[in-house]
Structures are given as C-alpha cells and as structure tokens.
Amino acid sequence: MHKDVVIVGAGISGIGAAYNLQKSCKTKSFTIIEGRSDLGGTWDLFKYPGIRSDSDMHTLGFRFKPWINDKSIADGPSILNYLNETTDEYNIREKILFNHKVKLANWNSAESVWELEVQDDTNSISKFTCNFLFMCGGYYSYDKPHQPDFNEQESFNGKIIHPQFWDESLDYANKNIIVIGSGATAVTLVPALAETAKHVVMLQRSPSYVIAAPEADAINLKLKKFLPLKLAYFITRWKNILLTYLMFYFARSYPERVKTRLINLVKEELGNDYDVEKHFTPRYKPWDQRMCLVPDGDLFESIKKGTASVVTDHIDKFNEDGILLQSGEELKADIIITATGIELNVLADIAINIDGRKVEPHNHLAYKGMMLGGVPNLAFSFGYVNASWTLRADLTAEYVCRLINQMDKEGVSVCMPQEDPAAEAEDDYIDFTSGYVQRALDRLPQQGKKAPWRNYQNYLLDIFYVRIWKLKDSTLRFYNPK
Questions:
Q1: Residues of the chain falling short of pLDDT 70
Q2: Which residues of 330-360 are buried (b: 16+ CB within 10 A; e: fewer)?
Q3: C-alpha distances in angstroms, 111 versus 107, 115, 336?
Q4: How many domains does the chain have?
Q5: What is the reported pLDDT for 470?
Q6: Which tens digit of pLDDT belongs to each residue from 423-438?
Q7: Last residue of one domain, picked from the residues 338, 371, 397
C-alpha cells in the first residue's frame, strides 16, 4: 500500500495532523497507523480512578474544535468522547488502520519513499510505502512504564499495581492504600481513591508543586452566556495561553517570589498546623518540573477530611503488611500503587533507517523541534513541557502541511534539514529536571545553541516561525534525487 503521507498514532497529535492534512493538503492521500484497537492515545490507555487532564481543556483541546463542556479540567472519559466526536465530525476514523504497529521505517533514497514494515495483531508483517512520514505516536512507552525495583517487593502479601496497567476489576473499597509518587498521576489518584478507600497515603521521596484551580473556568462560563461558542472558546483559549506564558515567565524570572506565593497558597488550603514545609515545599524552583494541578483542591480536601495523608520519606523495604521507611516508620497497606512515572520513547520506538543504515536520534540535532538534521521527509510531533501538548502539536501539523505544499510548488520529492557542522550541540540543553526527562537524555535528539536547532518552548514565538516566517532558509533543503 502506498500513501502520500503516513501518520503514526491516532491520539491528539495524529487526529490534529489528519485534520490539517485534509484542510491544507486536499490532494494528498494519507492513513493513520494506530497500534491499539481504538483511538485516543493516553486517554484510551489510562483507566485508573480519577484520570483527568493536567492542562485546561481550552488549550489541550483543538483550536478548530471548541471544548463546550463546562469543566475546564476534564476527566479522561470526557476527553476521549471529545476526541471521538472530532474524529467523526471530520471523517477521520475511516483513515485509521487500527491494531497495526510500525516496526521499521527505511528511507529509500533512490525512490524517495519511506518503506515501512507494519505488524498487525496476528504478528503478520505488511509492507507500506509513503512519501512523507509524520510521527505522532506520543512521547512515552505504552508497554514499559518506569518501575523501580523496591527492596523485598515480593514479600508484600497484598496487590501491587502500576497505574499504567490499572486493573478495572480491583476492589479497593474500605482498603488501606499506599500510592508511591508525588507527580500528576499520584495527586490525581489519591483523592479519587479516598472517596471509597479506608485510607490513602501518598508516599513521596520529595514534594512537587501542587496548585489548586477551579474545575470550571468562571470567565468561560460567563462568556458562553452571551457569545457564540466558538468566540467564547477562542477568547478563553487565548486568555489561558497568555496566563500560562506569564506564569512561566515570572517563575523563571523571579523563582523565589513565585515559590513563596505557591507555598503560601498551600498553607491557606491546609492551615498553619499542617507541615507544609516538609510535605509541599519542593527543593527545585517553580517550573523546573511541571506543576501538579488539583481541581477545586480535591487533594487538600481529602487531607483535611482525614481520608488521605502525605508521608515524605524514603523506602527501606517492603514487608508482608506494607512498607518500612528509612525513618523506621511502618506503613500498612492492602494495596500498593506504584505511580513512579513514565519512560520516554523516541519516534514511537520505531527503528529508523536510511538506505539500511540505522538512525540514532540522539546523534542528530532537532530542527525546529520537529525534524531531524540529515533525515529526509520525516517530522515528529512533541508537545511543550511548560504548556498544553496540543498547542505545539497543532503548530507542527500546520508546518508539515506547509512543507508538503512547498515541495509540490518546487516540483521536488525531498525536503531535509541539512546537518550544519557549525551548529554546536548544547550540552545542558534541557533545563527540565523531571525524572522521566532526565532518564531519556541519552535517547532524545539534541538541540543547538540557536535557531533553527533550538526549541525555545515558547508558543508565541513558535506561531511567528510557523505561520509568518518564511519556510525556506539556508538549512532546509528541497531537492530531487540524482
């Protein structure tokens, strides 16, 4: 089978890519290859209690499809419904090939095509070819989350479960539960479990920044009363984009002042008698890692009710009844949940070759955060670390459409960022300290010290580069094979 474009992944990025191709590249044939039996990516994979967005839906939603639900911080099923609605509204579902995984992609220079080996759910291999390969498979492994080996873990008599592999038949009513972790998954799980569990402990080595925010956007609710939905969505979306940008700017410019303010907000939630210094005061600066959003302060409410608590300590070992801490305290549990994080992958863990020679992404500079130097007709979608994923995914899809149309205008079959010997790789190019990022530094593409080889994590700047700035530069080469 041959297509002009193959999109890998039918999550937010893949659906957005399909919309843009249909809108801006009407003559191009494409298919979406999806490894799972349904669309949605993250929102179809995760089934744990309380699963929800960690960004507001007015920016996590598509710019072309208004989010009309009153809840700005939405639960997983609502997001999945939104993605299904979008897919059906724009007739994208018929373009998705489910239960197929791209295992190998080889660029054939003589023919100017990508040759794909695609495995279905019976392990049969099919051959596909395409002119352009668009990687929209997300940023983490669906099969291999981060699972540290805990000392004597096998001695625990209860059930141990990772949120990524949640057992929906698990009965946790009136059970004592330990959730290991302090990130977005942990702060989501704890209040959801606490509604029916006997008690839930969030066990963390060190705290994260936790911010309470209204589940519904009050300004959006008011706007929807007297403005058309699309206009209200547009205004709310840009209000949230600008507020997030300003918050990030102030956090990086005045970290101590912002930190003090964030900690004081937690103190207002939990009161002066609670040890906020120990349990909710991180060692790192604001926005060195993503903030943990708790809608309507649900985590704090669970703590105040006594149905949940936070313990900050290191694990010594597991035992039959729970976990022994290095302080000597023992936490008893019926169930232990290891919300220990994800493992980043690169290019959906697909083996990428050029004329049979393996491409190691880490040995290449990333061009505008969406292509690899020296790799033709390939783009990848990777969202922001300091804002909603969809903002960057939308811009990347727009840019890919511009590239494809420019190739037609030039009458060429290949576009490729040329590797620039003068573009030095930046050794300390990611100033983001989250464990899942740091664990993957030896696999991620590198960045240079300046544009176009540097990703500035700035939506406003990226709009300029994608929509306004000229497409052709001294780095991007358009050509036909000799």
A1: 424-434, 436
A2: ebebbbbbbbbbbbbbbbbebebbbeeeebe
A3: 9, 10, 54
A4: 2
A5: 83
A6: 766 655 556 666 767 7
A7: 338
